[in-house]
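> Could you send the SH3b domain-containing protein prediction when you get a chance?

Sure thing. Input:
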Amino acid sequence: MMRWKLALAAMAGLAMTALTATAADAAPGYTTAPARLRAGPGADYPTVARLRPGVPVQIFGCLDGWAWCDIGVGPDRGWANGRFLAADVQHRRRVIVEAAPVIGVPIIRFDAGPYWDNYYRGRPWYRDRGRWAH
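Output:
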């Protein structure tokens, strides 16, 4: 019984760690073209910021297939289309689909509730978050 409780506590701790990725957990990357930082992985989510090409970003993880990645840019956190992201691999810039597996970018999932609670309270569209909960 005690082992089961310890295992459950360890799993809960890992889950909380996954939800609170920090800059230390992120891989450095760049935007490759004008891009929008979105409040979720899709063009239908609100725009958090507009990004110019060449902007340094922190890549926390990507959806399976690298189509959308959770990134940090300065004080902002959000999702960018993977087509517009790259990272350096052995001193050469590579598109994220090639670079991510090499530099250790994890495959993650998106859960709008906790993500929006952590990063978007106070944004004008936060009160309508149910509209984007998929």
